[in-house]
Amino acid sequence: MSAVTATIPEDVMKTVQAKPTLRDEGAKLGFRLTLPAQILVLFIAVFPLLMQLYISLTDWSPLSGLGWWSAWSLWNNFANYTDLAADARFWSALKRTAIVMIICVPAEFLLGLALATLFADEFPGKRVFYSILLMPMMVVPAVAGYMFFMLFQSGGPVNDILSAVSGFPVTIAWLSDPTLALIAVMLADIWQWTPLMFLILLAGLVGVPEDQIKAATLLGANPWQRFVTIVLPKMKTIIIIALAIRVIENFKIFDTLYIMTGGGPGVATETISVYIYKLTTQDLIWGYVAAIALAILIVLSIAAVFAMKRMARTREVTA
Amino acid sequence: MSDMIRMSRRRLLASGGKAAVLVAAAGIAPKFIRPSRAYAADALAPGMIGGPTGFDGSERYQYGPDTPEGRAIEAAKAMKGAGKAPAKIVLGLSDGSIGQLTQPFPAGAPSIKDLWEKETGIPLEIVGVPNGQEFTKTMQDISTKGGAYDIYAVEWNRLGDLAETGGILKLDDFVAQYKPEWDDPERGYVNGAKGVSLLNQYRGSTYGVSLDGDFQTWVYRIDLFGAAAEKKAFSDKHGYELAPPRTWKQHDEIAAFFQRPDKGLFGSTDLRNQGWGYTNWYQRYVSMASPNQFLFDDTGKPLINSEQGVAATNEYIASLAHHSPDAISWGWPEQYGNFAKGGAAMTCAFSNLPKFLDNAGNKDSAVTGKIGSMLPPGREIDGKLISRSVLWLNLSASVSSQAKNPEACYLFLQWLGSSRIYAWMTANPGGYFDPFRLSDFSDRLVRQTYHAYHMDVVRETVARTVPTINYPGATAFHNALDENLVAALTKAKTAEQAMVDTEAEWKKIARRTGEEKLLEAIKTNKEAWPTVLDPIS
């Protein structure tokens, strides 16, 4: 059999190609319908970002007596960015934020997981303990800060307990010592947010299929093996969510810390949020604050992209 | 202010302050409950057009038509009559000060608020602002164009910052028209026109009306200083008489002598915390030269990174040895509470400390009848004693650029800040506004509330008081100094490094603020510094 070929004239071909498909029509209609919303989103998201970039290149502040649109007259040749690169206080605040995060989040996770494991089974008084355990999370962070401020006074309950235990008077000035103040702040954060970890992980734990656990038990797996090979993999997504929530929240740690120490003594407990807050509301150097905020946004965006890529790769491998 | 406060420390400050105020009010008010001696229930003295009535001596606070109060009231009445008055005036005011405007004092008297409303027909709405957050709230209102207040009341040294924002109005025209007589030699501000310039003006124009007298004042325990055993032990050890210290060297020796933490007594508890402590560093620093060791020279160059700056910082650090172990986290509620318990031999605080603590009505105070006042310690230079205090916090009121009727707001402030009404208000133990006018120091009611022994010393302290920074960027300048000083206190930095870093920060702030603007403000600020030199005796 010979192949029959037909030549389609070029002009016909063009007409066929140019004729909009139904899909194209739908896309255009969709675009037109969503255009107002897209413009609004663009305005809400992009305009402030551009404005921030513009302000960050100037020495503008509310003290300048100029409207932000006139900030160009205070152009400072990228001085905010060179200042930022050499700002030891900024870098130490960033480092401190990372330290708090690296210590608090794993501590909250491990404690939360341990408690969730305990609460996965029934036991007498479970409901009561459950309510008690969730209470710190319900305390307003400012109140929690004040509570811990009082607890850690040199004549406060913490030292009283230590005195009773050790048998000699303990008068540690917790909040006046740079290292101890940071420890006190981290203890407050762990106390307040472990319950959230516990709650999320408990939800994940009770969602693990019971039949798989039973099957593993029948096959002779011990509790640790069951936990590592079945429970943890099944909880992977919820663990990532829990950790992500706490990492993001912890990066923004403010209320409790500010009330306990105000970032002090000196700047010994100053995290990035506290530093930015002080510069914004007290020093009023908004051009510089804009530069800091942009720098942080860029760093966090890069970190988020890397994290998401890694998660996507993990999912592909798992699939 | 720092902080309060920072604070929450701020909450502690507010609640502690309120408690002290209530206790004090309960204790002092009965002194004045003498209805039988009231001047006349509802009558003004002959020739008077307004003022409080209903208590003994109320005529002292009444005013005729040709007085600052009278002119303000008449103009406000005329405005009301012409239908041009605002529906209300909204005053944003620290929580701790509201009582002095809303609580009648003494018994039988109206409150300040009631009197204003009765005489002018213009309602006054007072919106509480948390102590320590006055500037933040004000800046929020200005930058968001919120228009929540017609009048702001913030620390006096923020006037420069607020004026530069354009958020408060220049009041020069109103001042010229209504003549507040702030520089009156009998009833006006201490140091006359210089005092007015310091408290109410920025770069030569009036932007505020002072409503406070936060000249930091030193007090000591007369029972400890007067105890024969203590006197003997001290003179045996140091070779001179135990008495209120005249120099910083004496102060530090006396403080060390009384430092007995095991007995619940600290030598000297002038604050060392963030937000407040640096004002006590100021006192040591500015007395390092005659007549003053300035913060900046005439070209705007910072002078703190110097031999004097390092020496003052080293002294400041060493002074922790005769303080509470919690010194770095103590705010003034802890300071007042400790002094009330008899926990300190000396301290430096607002001038209201004896009002609250040397007070028979305050059952929580163990030092009633045991407090004495003294001038700030100083230094001997060229055969004279340089003794300096510092003006710190001190609320000033300003008219918002968003005020519906700026003139009515100014008239209210002129009336409130004038000698008769202010003396009557500051005598009221229901709040934090302290005496600062010449007429306050001699006023009978004020002297009863604050104690005569204290008022005389406060007046002399005012004459030796240096202003804190009040240039644009004041908060940033202070924060840089404050944070570096705390770093030095906590041994995170050496005194030398703290001064180097502060200087670097200050230069950066100056660049951002604008050097030209600063130079003018520095020059004006310097003109208000004291020149009093005391004899060495």
UniProtKB/TrEMBL annotation, chain A:
Broad class of the protein's primary localization: membrane
Keyword Membrane in annotation: yes
Database matches in InterPro entries: MetI-like (IPR000515), MetI-like_sf (IPR035906)
TM stretches of this protein: 33-55, 98-119, 128-149, 161-183, 190-207, 227-245, 257-279, 285-307
CDD domains per the UniProt record, alphabetical: TM_PBP2 (cd06261)
Membrane topology term: Multi-pass membrane protein
Keyword Nucleotide-binding among UniProt keywords: no
Keywords carried by this UniProt record: Cell membrane, Membrane, Transmembrane, Transmembrane helix, Transport
Gene3D superfamilies per record: MetI-like
Location within or outside the cell: Cell membrane
Domain ABC transmembrane type-1 residue range list: 94-307
Family: Belongs to the binding-protein-dependent transport system permease family.
Record-given protein name: Sugar ABC transporter permease
Native organism: Mesorhizobium onobrychidis
UniProtKB/TrEMBL annotation, chain B:
Subcellular location: Periplasm
Record's protein name: Extracellular solute-binding protein
Species name: Mesorhizobium onobrychidis
Transmembrane segments: none
Keyword terms: Periplasm, Signal, Transport
Family: Belongs to the bacterial solute-binding protein 1 family.
SUPFAM superfamilies: Periplasmic binding protein-like II (SSF53850)
Chief location: periplasm
Keyword Transport found: yes
InterPro entries: Bact_solute-bd_prot1, SBP, TAT_signal
One Pfam family linked to the record: SBP_bac_1
PANTHER family: ABC TRANSPORTER PERIPLASMIC-BINDING PROTEIN YCJN-RELATED (PTHR43649:SF34), ARABINOSE-BINDING PROTEIN-RELATED (PTHR43649)
Domain of life: Bacteria
